[in-house]
Amino acid sequence: MHEMDSIGILKDIEPEAERPLWQRAAEKRKKNAKSTRDKINSSLEIAYASLSLEGDVTIKKLAEYWNGMSEKGVKDRIKKSNGFYYENGIVYQKEEGDSGNE
Questions:
Q1: Terminal CA-to-CA distance of the chain, rounded, Å?
Q2: pTM for the complete prediction?
Q3: CA neighbours within 13 Å on the CB side: how many for 53?
Q4: How far apart are the C-alpha atoms of 85 and 78, rounded to whole Å?
Q5: Of 30, 37, 78, 83, whose CB is crowded by the most CB atoms within 10 A?
Q6: Beta bridge pairs of residue 93
Q7: DSSP-assigned beta bridge partners for residue 67
Q8: What gap in Å lies between CA 18 and CA 22, rounded to an integer?
Q9: What are the domain boundaries of the chain?
């Protein structure tokens, strides 16, 4: 059963089709970027946990773990992560309040 909105509760709702295409595309890009960032962080956490069982985790070991990714690529991933940093080629997991190499 449908009723008329007599108190204006639906007034602020903007239908999906009425938003400009560029706005919808921008929202989709933001959502995709967050998803990609989450996947990268998850991948880094798994790799770090796996490699830390063998001792220090280095940029070189991470590059090998990710099937020959360049060391520059590994460094970029670490810089973009929220939970890791590196010093002198060794990767560390940040602790609460630790700013790392930012």
A1: 57
A2: 0.66
A3: 5
A4: 6
A5: 78
A6: 84
A7: none
A8: 12
A9: 20-93
Scanning the structure block, which residue is given the tokens 């509760």?
Answer: 9
Written as one letter, the residue type at 70 is S
Measured CA angle at 10 (ends 4, 14), to 5 deg? 130
HSE-up of residue 72 (Cα within 13 Å, Cβ side): 0
Sheet (strand 90-93) strand order: 57-58, 90-93, 84-87
Contact (CB, 8 A) for 90 and 58: yes
- Per residue in 1-54, pLDDT (tens digit) is 777 767 777 667 766 667 788 888 898 999 898 888 888 889 999 999 999 999
DSSP 16: G
Helix axes 71-80, 21-52, angle to 10 degrees: 110
**Cα 49 to Cα 9: distance, rounded to the nearest angstrom:** 50
What number of helices (H) and strands (E) belong to the chain? 3, 3
